Amino acid sequence: MGSHGHLTDAPPPRRQTTPPSPEMGQMVCGTCRCLLSYPRGVRYVKCAQCRTVNLLLEAHQVGQVKCGNCSVLLMYPYGAPSVKCSCCHSVTEIGLR
Predict the structure, then answer these.
(1) NCBIfam families in the record, alphabetically (predicted)?
(2) Which of 11, 22, 44, 81 places its Cα 20 to 30 Å from the Cα of 91?
(3) Which residues of 46-82 are buried (b: 16+ CB within 10 A; e: fewer)?
(4) Residue 78 belongs to what domain range?
């Protein structure tokens, strides 16, 4: 302490951050858009917020298309004929690309 009862300048304490575990993955719930964490290797993830059971797909199992109504980027399982937007609820047909 200084002569007037003030603390001396000290460096702020370091904030310890832990990197995301490679054994965990993340996805956005298809219904309520809540961010979900899950252990890698599982096939389904149940949202704690809205209780929706979300099917988990690997990157090579999904396609992407922009919503025909609001242009949000949508993901769908390969082979699906259409995808319903979780934002505006519009159905976008999946064409041959």
Answers:
(1) LSD1
(2) 44
(3) ebeeeeeebeeeeeeeeeebebeeeeeebebeeeeee
(4) 61-96
**Is 18 within the bounds of a domain?**
no
- Whether the CB-CB separation of 47 and 38 falls below 8 Å is answered with no
50 and 71 inside one domain:
no
Q: State the pTM of this model.
A: 0.53
Q: How many domains does the chain have?
A: 2
Q: pLDDT of 4-62, one tens digit each?
A: 554 455 555 554 445 556 788 888 888 898 999 999 889 999 999 999 999 988 888 88
